[in-house]
């Protein structure tokens, strides 16, 4: 229990594009213990999904991934061959994707796809796999589970399909589950249900979870740890309490101003926005990527940005020692 | 599924009836059949006598009904030229054509599908380039020219294969290649395009995320979805091969149904031509039906439609 389940140091992802190299993810560090929930937040294109795919070894062939350390329960993922990765994927680490409508194979039954997840990794018979599939469908709250096995994806609604995806990811009781915006494509009324289900099951099975989302409300409710990503960098990490109550990085504070907060945001008051757009990441990226949109940008922001550690487990990157927190009015 | 099959079967029968009527009427569009039969030197009385003898004086619908009702019990009339029952004439010739067609489509599928899959796995690789070259060459070369080149090389210069006839399996090698190579490019390109599209889909990523091997991903999850349009195309190609292998049959002197059709048209042998048109259309109908059923089995979403 002393060493974390997942340890990532200096993860970098480069994508070759027409005009050079897109430095999509740069120098990401984080640890995740068993049973812990890490939420990665950030806007679209900040590299959240790429980071999760990199952990699973599911980046496309052209995309280059490097890391000084990337360990899953002592297994060095940077050196793992494809056979080792295949054995891990679906068994000890599983993933739930954003699009339930297209993430299931239209040509096979729900039962076939659920059972496959178990049969690939466990030496069990079809009957046992079938029983397990029924058990998990019931667990994710699907009624008439047994009769669903012979149904095809197109016969189910989006919410049901995402429940099936969750059941599929849980077939082998993984130690780590990565959910990449699992509720974004769903109806708002279903979103909360699915998320609740995922988090409850995660706790029940003592799974570590990486939840990628841009819904800060969700993060506040479920996260143990929060990592804020901006333009391919982790600008701030810490416990949920630290990041929400003592946000250090100007970007984190900007994000938090964008959502209404009970007791803090006055009725009728304008919510905050962050002006500007995400910088182009093609070619070398130096300095702070947020400086073009930051109220506190100074000349030094073009240089290397120091890592700061205001408290245990709380880290951020900014030239200002306190992220220039004091210069802003209360959040 | 059964419901779907019955629906498609009903549809196929309706199409067959329509086609039979059209093919029957077509023969009357090419002029007075009695005059054609009697020949250029015949007197008006002879033409009239022939008209009555063959029943051309009756209303067309009556003639159609007469023809159709005997066709349904296997009697397709008597060939004017061979003086033999058309049904036995066609049955004999069809053996060659069907064998050739089956060999041709098998050759096409067995080369095109693996090549298309290989090309899609590594687009722009050397395999992809070779596949592209082969398919462009296949599309550009006329069958008769390719057939003649094969005969020149393998029969005349090397002496490995017989140039014509149907006596042994070796006689079928070159015709199979010529016929199959004609269908290969389209099937190959469609397989490649389908695989490329499917391989970038999210359910393929899901399969990989489950820990499926590359083999399972390709041949269970991807190919089954990519092959669906190929099935429909192959069915049409197969129908074409059975009905339209006239060129190949003439080059290699295979006395098949395509060759018979060509002969009969030249000889104004009405009953034979009518029967052949009917048989060829029935092939199309049967293969379309089979491909619909196969596709519905492959893709559950089609079963509803």
TrEMBL record, chain A:
<keyword id="KW-0067">ATP-binding</keyword>
<keyword id="KW-0547">Nucleotide-binding</keyword>
<dbReference type="GO" id="GO:0016887">
    <property type="term" value="F:ATP hydrolysis activity"/>
</dbReference>
<keyword id="KW-0813">Transport</keyword>
<protein>
    <submittedName>
        <fullName>Peptide ABC transporter ATP-binding protein</fullName>
    </submittedName>
</protein>
<dbReference type="InterPro" id="IPR050388">
    <property type="entry name" value="ABC_Ni/Peptide_Import"/>
</dbReference>
<dbReference type="Pfam" id="PF00005">
    <property type="entry name" value="ABC_tran"/>
</dbReference>
<dbReference type="GO" id="GO:0005886">
    <property type="term" value="C:plasma membrane"/>
</dbReference>
<comment type="similarity">
    <text>Belongs to the ABC transporter superfamily.</text>
</comment>
<dbReference type="InterPro" id="IPR013563">
    <property type="entry name" value="Oligopep_ABC_C"/>
</dbReference>
<feature type="domain" description="ABC transporter">
    <location>
        <begin position="6"/>
        <end position="256"/>
    </location>
</feature>
<dbReference type="InterPro" id="IPR003439">
    <property type="entry name" value="ABC_transporter-like_ATP-bd"/>
</dbReference>
<dbReference type="InterPro" id="IPR027417">
    <property type="entry name" value="P-loop_NTPase"/>
</dbReference>
<dbReference type="GO" id="GO:0055085">
    <property type="term" value="P:transmembrane transport"/>
</dbReference>
<keyword id="KW-1003">Cell membrane</keyword>
<dbReference type="Pfam" id="PF08352">
    <property type="entry name" value="oligo_HPY"/>
</dbReference>
<dbReference type="GO" id="GO:0005524">
    <property type="term" value="F:ATP binding"/>
</dbReference>
<dbReference type="GO" id="GO:0015833">
    <property type="term" value="P:peptide transport"/>
</dbReference>
<dbReference type="InterPro" id="IPR003593">
    <property type="entry name" value="AAA+_ATPase"/>
</dbReference>
<keyword id="KW-0472">Membrane</keyword>
TrEMBL record, chain B:
<feature type="transmembrane region" description="Helical">
    <location>
        <begin position="172"/>
        <end position="191"/>
    </location>
</feature>
<dbReference type="Pfam" id="PF19300">
    <property type="entry name" value="BPD_transp_1_N"/>
</dbReference>
<dbReference type="GO" id="GO:0055085">
    <property type="term" value="P:transmembrane transport"/>
</dbReference>
<feature type="domain" description="ABC transmembrane type-1">
    <location>
        <begin position="94"/>
        <end position="291"/>
    </location>
</feature>
<keyword id="KW-0813">Transport</keyword>
<feature type="transmembrane region" description="Helical">
    <location>
        <begin position="98"/>
        <end position="121"/>
    </location>
</feature>
<feature type="transmembrane region" description="Helical">
    <location>
        <begin position="230"/>
        <end position="255"/>
    </location>
</feature>
<keyword id="KW-1003">Cell membrane</keyword>
<feature type="transmembrane region" description="Helical">
    <location>
        <begin position="133"/>
        <end position="160"/>
    </location>
</feature>
<comment type="similarity">
    <text>Belongs to the binding-protein-dependent transport system permease family.</text>
</comment>
<dbReference type="InterPro" id="IPR000515">
    <property type="entry name" value="MetI-like"/>
</dbReference>
<keyword id="KW-1133">Transmembrane helix</keyword>
<keyword id="KW-0812">Transmembrane</keyword>
<dbReference type="GO" id="GO:0005886">
    <property type="term" value="C:plasma membrane"/>
</dbReference>
<protein>
    <submittedName>
        <fullName>Peptide ABC transporter permease</fullName>
    </submittedName>
</protein>
<dbReference type="Pfam" id="PF00528">
    <property type="entry name" value="BPD_transp_1"/>
</dbReference>
<dbReference type="InterPro" id="IPR035906">
    <property type="entry name" value="MetI-like_sf"/>
</dbReference>
<dbReference type="InterPro" id="IPR045621">
    <property type="entry name" value="BPD_transp_1_N"/>
</dbReference>
<feature type="transmembrane region" description="Helical">
    <location>
        <begin position="275"/>
        <end position="298"/>
    </location>
</feature>
<keyword id="KW-0472">Membrane</keyword>
